[in-house]
Amino acid sequence: MAKLIIPTPLRKFTENQSALESNGSTVIEAMQDLANEYPNLKKHIFDDHGKIRNFIRIYLGNDDIQSLQNENTPVADDSVISIIPAIAGGTNN
């Protein structure tokens, strides 16, 4: 089973779990599996068309899936998938 790393801002939707396992054979299947298990997380990961939101970055190991096969990137049993939400803020001087 692939391991999904849940970032701190999204842990409130996964019962404060920092890592979960998924049976998905691709990144999109793993993410859908996560959203099905934790329905309150779905709107934070997926847009209205079922696509991963463009401000969410997904890494398979050290590689951004955009440099691989995007959502269709294959996932092995020993894969580590990291979800990285965009962080904005700061001040204008």
TrEMBL record:
Give the matching Gene3D superfamilies.
3.10.20.30
Q: Which domain of life is it from?
A: Bacteria
- Which Pfam family, any one, appears in the UniProt record? ThiS
Which InterPro entries did the record assign?
Beta-grasp_dom_sf, Mopterin_synth/thiamin_S_b, Sulfur_Carrier/Prot_Modifier, ThiS/MoaD-like
The name this protein goes by in its record:
MoaD/ThiS family protein
What organism is listed for this UniProt entry?
Splendidivirga corallicola
